[in-house]
């Protein structure tokens, strides 16, 4: 009798796959992580496991926020990121210190933080997911590709926006082509860049190709030779990825990464276009929890106030 019970419990085909989603919870921006998580959780039936990455000092705050709000139903693991791994790999840059936050580099270390998954989604904290995250997870990666990104030249409706705000969408905007090491790469400066704020990654390939080591090598070279600076495009976390993944990544459906919402407090997309978007990304300086910023209503839909009252939205009337 016992035998049958075991056999029938769960056939391998019916085990619901876990979708690991990695999001960072940084000091001063925790409301961002909370809104992102809340939007994902509310729009899917899938079995999502959130990996929330924080620094030792911020972890108690985010844990309390989750456990004392309606997010207490989510499946999550909190992982501490040790900034010591970055020692000697980041050039101090006074012009935009926020780009040097240790958690900006979490995406370089995915296999070290996430152990048992073959495929992982990494999301920046300043996103809102309006589609079913299962769809993004089902992104096909070509053989030999460790990651999929959204191409910066892939969506006509965003081109207007890019032009109007002077946004960079080629390698020229990120790497210093006056430097020999960059020219030696043989990458044309007009090559289309990609945005590493949304990543679907294959951990086996990542480890096999030693992607983390390659990224660290370029970080170290930048410390010595200043090959890309944060005054250019996306600062210091994008450039090593552009180099290491050049010509070796798969594509994410463009509707799964509608970006530049934080690029200017005046540039707006049409409401209809935003309704159709599966994922919205406020990359740029104008964040939806601050003021001024655009399309904040879409973001605030998913925001859950901080039970401890520490994190507050900045609004014109506040």
In CATH, the homologous superfamily goes by the name Spore Coat Polysaccharide Biosynthesis Protein SpsA, Chain A
Derived structural class: alpha/beta
Distance between the termini: 67 Å
CATH classification class: Alpha Beta
Number of strands: 9
Count, helices: 12
Overall shape? globular
Q: Tell me roughly what share of residues is in helical segments.
A: 25-40%
Question: Can you describe what's shown?
Answer:
The protein is of the alpha/beta class and 318 residues long. The strands form two sheets. A seven-stranded mixed β-sheet has the order 3-2-1-4-7-6-8, sandwiched between helices. The chain has a two-stranded antiparallel sheet with strand order 5-9. α9 packs across α10. α3 links the parallel β2 and β3 (75-80). The protein is built from twelve helices and nine strands. The protein has helices spanning 2-9, 30-42, 59-67, 110-113, 133-137, 156-165, 180-183, 203-208, 211-225, 238-244, 271-276, 296-300, and strands at 18-24, 47-54, 75-80, 119-123, 127-129, 147-151, 194-202, 250-251, 279-281. The model is unreliable at 1-11 (pLDDT under 50). It is globular. The protein has one domain (19-157, 193-224, 234-301): Spore Coat Polysaccharide Biosynthesis Protein SpsA, Chain A, CATH 3.90.550.10. It starts with a helix and ends in an 18-residue tail after the last helix.
Keywords:
318 residues; alpha/beta; Spore Coat Polysaccharide Biosynthesis Protein SpsA, Chain A; 7-stranded mixed beta sheet; two-stranded antiparallel ribbon; disordered N terminus; transmembrane; signal-anchor; glycosyltransferase
């Amino acid at each position: 009798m016992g035998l049958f019970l075991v056999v029938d419990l769960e056939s391998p085909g019916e085990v619901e796959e876990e979708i690991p989603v990695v999001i960072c919870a940084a000091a001063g921006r925790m409301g961002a992580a909370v809104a992102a998580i809340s939007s994902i959780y509310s729009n899917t039936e899938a079995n999502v496991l959130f990996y929330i990455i924080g620094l030792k000092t911020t972890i108690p705050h985010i844990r309390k926020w989750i456990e004392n709000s309606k997010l207490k139903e989510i499946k999550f693991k909190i992982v501490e990121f040790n900034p010591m791994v970055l020692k000697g790999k980041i050039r101090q840059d006074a012009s935009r210190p926020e780009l040097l936050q240790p958690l900006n580099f979490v995406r370089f270390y995915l296999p070290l933080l996430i152990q048992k998954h073959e495929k992982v989604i990494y999301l920046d904290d300043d996103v809102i997911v309006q589609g079913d995250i299962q769809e993004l997870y089902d992104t096909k990666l070509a053989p030999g590709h460790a990651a999929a990104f959204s191409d910066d030249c892939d969506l006509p409706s965003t081109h207007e926006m890019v032009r109007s705000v002077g946004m960079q969408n080629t390698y020229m905007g990120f790497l210093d082509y006056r430097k020999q090491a960059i020219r030696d790469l043989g990458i044309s400066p007009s090559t289309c860049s990609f945005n590493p704020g949304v990543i679907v990654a294959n951990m086996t390939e990542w480890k096999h190709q030693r992607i983390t080591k390659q990224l660290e090598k370029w970080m170290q070279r930048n410390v010595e030779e200043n090959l890309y600076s944060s005054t250019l495009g996306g600062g210091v976390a994008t450039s090593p990825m552009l180099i290491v993944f050049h010509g070796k990544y798969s594509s994410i459906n463009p509707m799964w990464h509608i970006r530049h919402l934080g690029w200017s407090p005046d540039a707006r997309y049409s409401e209809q276009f935003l309704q159709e978007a599966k994922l919205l990304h406020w990359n740029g300086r104008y964040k939806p929890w601050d003021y001024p910023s655009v399309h904040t209503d879409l973001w605030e839909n998913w925001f859950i106030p901080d039970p401890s009252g520490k994190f507050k939205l900045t609004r014109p009337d506040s």
